[in-house]
Design a protein that fits this description.
single chain, about 425 residues, mainly alpha, Ammonium transporter fold, globular
Length: about 425
């Protein structure tokens, strides 16, 4: 009897020894929040929000005429508020919850189901609250960039309607396509921090807005020089610093990939600023302040999709190419085509984003950040083609949807202020305030 009892104990012990590792494995599978990753992502979120307010607000505000400065900074601030509320209601859910390959689901509508220790599948070491706020800052700055293309002539009411609809119809689906489990991500399109989702998207929407709304009154004849480039330099500087959160934060935590993304961001920005400056110096006789800060932003734009996939030498080349090509886009192309892209949203962000997306395929290095990416073998023709197709798909959807949204708003409430209001200035006519 005792032998049977001891045999039973031995059997239970053996079963327990088999069960304990399984229980330990199950415990290990539960996501564990990492304080270092969380701290870096909290910091990155604040840095990216700083890019819009006050960074972009000052950058754009300094480049318009004095009579429109308040209206311009108001756009950045109001967009920040509007998109934040829409992101809570439905934007985040459409972009980053499981659904189809075209659009996300409604699992997080009104952020229902959100918990203190819950995580997102794409960022398992940080709270989902931090992840959704980080992604929100991208959703904020993208439409805010568009405003540079129609500065000094769009109704505030029309702008608010346009940004709300555009964020849900254009931004959220494209973010899902590339980052949220959609078809472009499954194709193997590489966009580490938003070259396609943010910059191509904003640039294309900007040029469509400029074409549909039309040129500013007096464009090509009146003096439309920036009223205060000191504001723009401060804004560009805040954008540059904030971009470390934009790119290095897209690593999802404090890691080697974040460090490399930060390094290549710095080198690309500096190289592009110098390239634009020297191109302007050679062709126009003097290096301008507006030129060097525009070049830096162009470099930051172009390195964005590549920041997690390239080494410093690749970043250097990307920066130089972006500085030269965006200088041409903001000067030669714009003048040749005759459109009034007020603050060069297309010339810098659209063209810079496209250059960066294509060169990502050229300079991508698998060991840096491309493990498991379909077709990625240290920069190859196949990846370049994938980048091209991904960019063209986004361009097509963005252009068509933007055009339709604008036409509907124009038919219902009108897009543009009156000629008298435009001449007198948007500050006093739209907001009842002026800067002296």
């Amino acid at each position: 009897m005792k032998r049977k009892f001891y045999a039973l104990l031995a059997g239970l012990g053996a079963a327990g020894s088999l069960l304990l590792p399984a229980l330990a494995l199950a415990a290990d599978e539960k996501p564990k929040l990492d304080t270092g990753d969380t701290a870096w992502m909290l910091t990155s979120t604040a840095l990216v929000l700083m890019m819009t307010i006050p960074g972009l607000a000052l950058f754009y505000g300094g480049m318009v005429r004095r009579k429109n400065v308040l209206a311009t900074v108001m756009q950045s601030f109001a967009i920040t508020c509007l998109i934040s509320v829409l992101w809570l209601i439905i934007g985040y859910s459409l972009a980053f919850t499981p659904g189809s390959t075209i659009i996300g689901g409604l699992d997080r509508i009104f952020l229902r189901g959100l918990t203190l220790d819950g995580v997102h599948e794409l960022a398992k070491t940080i709270p989902e609250t931090v992840y959704l706020c980080f992604q929100l800052t991208f959703a904020i700055i993208t439409p805010a960039l568009i405003a540079g293309a129609f500065a000094e002539r769009m109704k505030f009411s029309a702008m608010m309607w346009f940004m709300a609809l555009w964020s849900l119809i254009v931004y959220a689906p494209i973010a899902h396509w590339v980052w949220g489990g959609g078809f472009l991500g499954s194709w193997g399109v590489l966009d580490y921090a938003g070259g396609t989702v943010v910059h191509i998207n904003a640039g294309v929407a900007g040029v469509v807005c400029a074409l549909v709304i039309g040129k500013r009154k007096g464009f090509g004849h009146d003096n439309m020089a920036p009223h205060n480039l000191v504001y723009s330099v401060i804004g560009a500087s805040l954008l540059w610093v904030g971009w470390f959160g934009f790119n290095a934060g897209s690593a999802g935590g404090a890691s080697g990939n974040a460090g490399m993304a930060m390094a290549v961001t710095q080198f690309a920005a500096a190289a592009a600023a110098l390239a634009w400056m020297f191109a302007e110096w050679v062709t126009r006789g003097k290096p301008s302040v507006l030129g060097v800060i525009s070049g830096a932003v162009a470099g930051l734009v172009a390195i964005t999709p590549a920041s997690g996939f390239v080494n410093p030498m690749g970043a250097l080349v990307i920066g130089i190419v972006a500085g030269l090509v965006c200088f041409w886009g903001a000067t030669g192309l714009k003048h040749a085509m005759g459109y009034d892209d007020s603050l060069d949203a297309f010339g810098v962000h659209g063209i810079g984003g496209f250059v960066g997306a294509i060169l990502t395929g050229v300079f991508a290095i698998e060991v840096i950040g491309g493990e498991g990416k379909k077709g990625l073998i240290d920069g190859n023709a196949g990846q370049v083609l994938t980048q091209l197709w991904g960019s063209l798909v986004c361009i097509a959807w963005c252009a068509v949807a933007t055009f339709v949204i604008l036409k509907i708003i124009d038919a219902l409430i009108g897009l543009r202020v009156t000629a008298e209001e435009e001449v007198e200035g948007l500050d006093i006519n739209l907001h009842g305030e002026t800067v002296h």
